Amino acid sequence: MRVNSQIGAFSIVPEWVLLRGLSPTALKLYVVLARFADYQTGRAFPSRETLADRMGCSEKTVDRAVRELEREECIRAWLPKRYASKQYEVFQVDPRGDGMPIDETPMSDDETYMSGEGTDLSAREDTDVHLTITNERQPIQRELINKQFDDFWSLYPRRTGKQEARRAFEKAVKAVGLDTVMDGARSLAADPNLPPQQYVPNPATWLNQGRWDDDPYPAPAYEVKPTAAQRTAQLVYSARDRDEQELITKGIGQGPDFGAGLKGIDS
């Protein structure tokens, strides 16, 4: 069986082949042939020269390994016609039928399946085992994380240090969940008492410090400064009031003093 991975193509050797007791050369030839074999039919037709070059040995050594694999029924080899290169069929399923299906696999005392080596096939408890897994979901997951971060980035009221913020975002989402982080960012962006942008924490700082649980900003304690139009109006009104007061002081613009006439009558 041929599989592709991030480190290149490689071959999977069935367990029944390993249990045949093959020589290292024959086992290596099985792996090399499996790399040439068609995925559906298992057939391959590399030349002796190619096999010898891949294995780093002589062609006679290849011939001996071919005979060993045929004897152990790991492959089938034949000549399609005279003077032609040999063709091979690489077996993935044991032709002897020695492989035990799962419904005939022996059970352990705990009623879990046992492997051919007598080991328990239940969930492994050792954590130092490196297993080969497919990476088909990784591009999808990365695309989803990028989309979530873009939403956060467009929402946060200060956008600086994007790469550092991306790393902090992924760490925070793993720790508390996406909803908690996004709800905190929305509350911050909608805070009516949000200070000027230069006083808002950098997004990476906000995330690393877990500030989605912070209280809203308090109302400003300082007096709100008037606008330019308001200051101009105040100046105009102040000048007018000052001029009127000056005219009154000088007696200009005052009406007749009726009190003075009444005083003359009384006298």
Overview features:
3-stranded antiparallel β-sheet, 5 strands, 267 residues, mainly alpha, Arc Repressor Mutant, subunit A, 10 helices, 46% helix
What does this molecule look like?
This protein has 10 helices and 5 strands; from the N terminus they run ββααβααββαααααα. The protein is rod-shaped. Helix content is 46%, strand content 7%. A 3-stranded antiparallel beta sheet has the order 3-5-4. Strands 1-2 form a two-stranded antiparallel ribbon. It is mainly alpha-helical and 267 residues long. Among the domains are: 89 residues, Orthogonal Bundle (Arc Repressor Mutant, subunit A), CATH 1.10.10; 77 residues, no CATH class.
Quick structural overview:
With 267 residues, the chain is mostly helical. 46% of the residues lie in helices and 7% in strands.
Q: What is the CA-based Rg, rounded? A: 44 Å
> Helical segment tally?
10
Dominant shape: rod-shaped
Instruction: Report mean pLDDT, rounded to a whole number.
Output: 79
Helical amount among residues, as a percent range? Answer: 40-55%
Q: Termini, distance in Å?
A: 135 Å
Q: Which CATH first-tier class of one domain would you pick? A: Mainly Alpha
Poorly predicted ranges: 100-105, 131-136
CATH superfamily of one domain: Winged helix-like DNA-binding domain superfamily/Winged helix DNA-binding domain
Strand order of the largest sheet: 3-5-4
Question: SSE order in H/E notation?
Answer: EEHHEHHEEHHHHHH
